[in-house]
Amino acid sequence: MEYSEKVMDHFMNPRNCGVLSDANAVGEVGNAKCGDIMKIYMKIENDIIKDIKFQTFGCCAAIATSSMATELIKGKPISDALNLTNKAVVEALDGLPPVKIHCSVLAEEAIKAALANYFRSIGNNEEADKLDASCDGCCEHCDCGKH
Fold first, then answer.
1. Of 2 and 138, which is predicted with more confidence?
2. pTM of this structure
3. What CATH code would you report for 5-129?
4. Which of 59, 60, 103, 138 is catalytic?
């Protein structure tokens, strides 16, 4: 399996890796079929993602997509994170092998799970519920149970 230079860079030198002790948004997702688990921590202030960290247990692609996804939304408004797609993460990494696309789906879902957690914490259950139902089953490896 061949990975792009960007994938290998984000795997070997992951950005924003670790735990964010003052996070006010936390999301965790996993894929039972491949064993990948992603946990995203965000510190959101005034609708801006001031800081973001991740912990990922998984393959090269899982770590690289977590790293790239956090880079794409760090310092940005919540709206940018809400609009982030797995396809944008894959493109930013100059592609992934087809059998590893599910890793980018997990990165997107972890971010949305963290945002759902944040919206619930501020009493916006309507927005949180929309995010909980956001998986569209775009990946044959999806195991979210929402379809």
1. 2
2. 0.87
3. 3.90.1010.10
4. 103
